[in-house]
Structures are given as structure tokens and as C-alpha cells.
């Protein structure tokens, strides 16, 4: 049968992938890190037995975190990515010529190190001259920033271990302070099949902090349930009111200008989480 990796997504459900070999495994200061070469998904980054990204489907997550807020903001110059040590969101951010500086704050330097080694198609942009990489606590970086960023993207793991604070109302309030007067932020907020309470909680907390709060979705097959949500908080700009001239041709595999608006059309059971 060979070797298989299984992520146990609930107590009674999981996803499994056939593994060719383990490329690297270690216990970092923050989490268990493993790089796997898989039959179906190419190289795969696993943290604490949870799939973070794979070579085959990574583009969906990274494009949807980056391009939805960046096309919503009329002139994003300074962008912060919290987490995201694999570099995929940074790669997408740099496709916007208006961006003068992209700052990555990743708490675990080992994620950066081994992503560069085993996921070069994802992490290669971390060497770009517009990028500043900081191995630091994203929560504290936000707390120490004020009116500094046009767009902030929270590319975190699920709310366990070092990522717990990144799902708190205080963190969203700190993000509001760290953003400029017309700033936008987006965070991954897990899936509605297994984490409905989390989505409901985050949406409520963000809505109390930002005048415009929206949830959007994407299909990511290696993430729990395959249906993934993102929550956006905006001070001024409505992602559903972007003028046609804002859009420009961009090299993507998932995101399109048509999808920009369509991704906010939610299945009813997901929309209900934003109305209770």
C-alpha cells in the first residue's frame, strides 16, 4: 500500500494522501513541521499534522487572500502579511505594481527556511527587493504599528498553538489601528462545515470593528471540507463596488475579475452565519 499521510479534520473524518517520501521533519520552537513529497499534490507543507499548502493547489488560497483586497483598494502601496512563511501570498501581492513595500511577519523562521528549499515556486518571491521579511510575532507587530499599512492580510494556521491570538477581537482592533484611514484587511477563517462557530464569531468581532465586513469563499481541495472562507474588514471601500477600470490583466489560475464579485455570493448555510 505504501505510506499515507492523513490529516484528521474532525474526530470522525480526515483526508489522506499517498506519500513518496518525507523531505524534512522537525519540532521547531513553535510547532511540528514536515515537508512531504506526495503522489497527487506534489510537495506538501504540514504543520502540527495539518496541511498548510501543496504545490498543486496552493494558487487558489494565495490568489484569493491577495487579489480580492488589493483590487478593492484603489492604491495599495504598503502591504503586511502576517504568517504566510511559505511566501505564496507575498508572491501574489507583488503582481500589483502599486505595491512599493510588502512586509512578511512570520513567527517561525523554519517555515520560511524549508519553504525556500522545498517549495521554491511558492517561496521564490521572498527574495524580491520590495519584500521585508521579519521573523517575529505577528500579534505584537500589529500592536506596535499605527496607521502604517494600506492592506493587511492574515495568513495564519488554524486557531491552535501560536495562531490562537490571531483570531481574537483585540487583534482585529489592533489591525484597525495599524491600517491607514482607508485600509482593508482580510483573514482566512476556516471552513463552514466543521468550524461554523468560528466563522460566526470572527464575523461578529470584525463587524464591530470595521464599517464594511464581508465573507467570501474559495474551493481548496486539500483544506478541510474543500470549501474555505475568508473574512474582509474595510474602513471605506466595498469589494462589491469596485469600478471596472480598477481591474487589470494579471497572471492567475483561479482569481478573475468576474470571480471577484461572485465569490461573495454565499451558500445559504454560510450566509446564515453572518446574520445570526
TrEMBL record:
Any Gene Ontology CC annotation: cytosol
Residues where spermidine binds: 62, 86, 155-158
Residues the record lists as binding S-methyl-5'-thioadenosine: 31, 106, 137-138, 162
GO BP terms in the entry: spermidine biosynthetic process
EC number: 2.5.1.16
Active site residues according to the UniProt entry: 155
Chain's role: Catalyzes the irreversible transfer of a propylamine group from the amino donor S-adenosylmethioninamine (decarboxy-AdoMet) to putrescine (1,4-diaminobutane) to yield spermidine.
HAMAP family in UniProt: Spermidine_synth
Subunit and partners: Homodimer or homotetramer.
Record protein name field: Polyamine aminopropyltransferase
GN (gene name): speE
Amino acid at each position: 500500500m505504501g505510506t499515507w499521510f492523513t490529516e484528521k479534520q474532525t474526530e470522525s473524518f480526515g483526508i489522506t494522501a499517498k506519500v513518496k517520501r518525507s523531505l524534512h521533519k522537525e519540532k521547531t520552537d513553535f510547532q511540528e513541521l514536515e515537508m512531504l513529497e506526495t503522489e497527487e499534490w506534489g510537495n506538501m507543507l504540514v504543520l502540527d499534522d495539518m496541511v498548510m499548502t501543496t504545490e498543486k493547489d496552493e494558487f487558489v488560497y494565495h490568489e484569493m487572500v491577495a487579489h480580492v483586497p488589493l483590487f478593492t483598494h484603489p492604491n495599495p502601496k504598503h502591504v503586511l502579511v502576517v504568517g504566510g512563511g511559505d511566501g505564496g501570498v507575498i508572491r501574489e501581492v507583488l503582481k500589483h505594481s502599486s505595491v512599493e513595500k510588502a512586509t512578511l511577519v512570520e513567527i517561525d523562521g523554519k517555515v520560511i527556511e524549508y519553504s525556500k528549499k522545498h517549495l521554491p515556486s511558492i517561496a521564490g518571491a521572498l527574495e524580491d527587493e520590495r519584500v521585508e521579511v521579519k521573523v517575529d510575532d505577528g500579534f505584537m507587530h500589529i500592536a506596535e504599528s499605527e496607521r502604517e499599512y494600506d492592506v493587511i492580510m492574515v495568513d495564519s494556521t488554524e486557531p491552535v498553538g501560536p495562531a490562537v491570538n490571531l483570531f481574537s477581537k483585540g487583534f482585529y482592533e489592533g489591525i484597525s489601528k495599524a491600517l491607514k484611514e482607508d485600509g482593508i484587511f482580510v483573514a482566512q477563517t476556516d471552513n463552514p462545515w466543521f468550524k461554523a462557530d468560528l466563522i460566526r464569531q470572527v464575523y461578529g468581532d470584525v463587524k464591530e470593528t470595521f464599517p464594511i465586513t464581508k465573507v467570501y469563499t474559495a474551493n481548496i481541495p486539500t483544506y478541510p471540507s474543500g470549501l474555505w472562507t475568508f473574512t474582509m474588514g474595510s474602513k471605506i471601500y466595498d469589494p462589491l463596488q469596485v469600478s471596472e477600470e480598477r481591474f487589470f490583466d494579471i497572471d492567475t489560475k483561479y482569481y478573475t475579475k468576474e470571480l471577484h464579485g461572485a465569490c461573495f455570493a454565499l451558500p445559504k448555510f454560510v450566509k446564515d452565519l453572518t446574520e445570526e
